[in-house]
Design brief:
With 251 residues, the chain is an alpha/beta fold. The protein folds into two domains: 153 residues, HAD superfamily/HAD-like (Rossmann fold, 3-Layer(aba) Sandwich); 77 residues. The chain has a six-stranded parallel β-sheet, sandwiched between helices. α8 links the parallel β2 and β3. α5 packs across α6 and α6 packs across α8.
């Protein structure tokens, strides 16, 4: 049975707005934000100890570094195995190929679990498509996410899916928004963007001419409200994807 889908009220000055498409963020929007860090999982599973001995802290610090994150999500390091080899090289370690392969397998399994959609996502997206809206996705992610996405149960509901690792760009680069609109066959002014405020994404969408909606799920409020964009957001706000139906009903 599909979950009950609540409605929200829409500011009267926007009730005449008509959208051709809705573009969604992925993490914190359609799926939960990733719980915990992947390197910590490797440590817990004993995979790091097998590969780097007593230097787990050093490996974890390099994996979690901002520069390494940027390399992963812009596609400079295509897979976790590439990152592992790069980090081990910096540490002066020649990793056992079997350990590298085990870590890559663990990464794929991890990603499959974290892109599981929230309970109201599939029925809501299905309703939006039935109403003639095109659906797009823009996500800042690694190659493993883009690979696992194709087999996910929600992928078929989207007309366009744009991954930072494939484009070599991260939000709020305007080219990500502009390309997505172009591939959807519409203009930014005819698109609505929905995200949890990570990486200045809402302001980025608005600068391109889109309307934007902040989503803040109650169980992740402590994560979302750590971001200055979310704390200072004065625009439309929802607490669940299901509320999009009420918004669209009042165009």
């Amino acid at each position: 049975m599909s979950p009950e889908l609540p409605e929200i009220s829409l500011n009267s000055e926007r009730t005449g707005m008509k959208y051709d498409a809705i573009i969604f963020d992925l993490f914190g929007t359609l799926v939960d934000n990733c719980g915990g860090k992947f390197a910590d999982r490797l440590r817990q599973d004993g995979l790091l100890a097998d590969m780097v001995g007593g230097r787990e802290d050093e490996f974890t610090a390099l994996w979690d570094a901002d520069a390494m994150y940027l390399n992963r999500v812009t596609g400079n390091h295509r897979l976790a195995s590439d990152c592992v080899r790069h980090i081990c090289s910096r540490m002066g370690i020649a990793p056992d190929p079997r350990h590298v392969e085990r870590i890559q397998q663990c990464r794929m399994e991890y990603v499959k679990t974290v892109i599981d959609p929230r309970s109201d996502v599939i029925p809501t997206l299905s309703h939006l498509r039935q109403r003639g809206l095109k659906l797009g996705l823009i996500t800042v992610c690694t190659w493993e996410v883009s690979l696992c996405w194709q087999a996910s149960e929600v992928a078929g509901l989207f007309d366009v899916a744009v991954f930072s690792c494939a484009e070599g760009l991260t939000k709020p680069d305007p080219r990500l928004y502009q390309r997505t609109c172009e591939w959807l066959g519409t203009s930014p002014e005819r698109c609505l963007y929905v995200g949890d405020g990570s990486g200045d994404e809402l302001a980025g969408a608005k600068r391109c001419g889109m309307d934007a909606v902040l989503i803040c799920a109650p169980h992740e409020e402590h994560i979302v409200m750590e971001r200055s964009e979310a704390r200072n957001w004065t625009g439309l706000k929802i607490s669940a994807i299901g509320e999009m139906l009420g918004l669209i009903d009042q165009e």
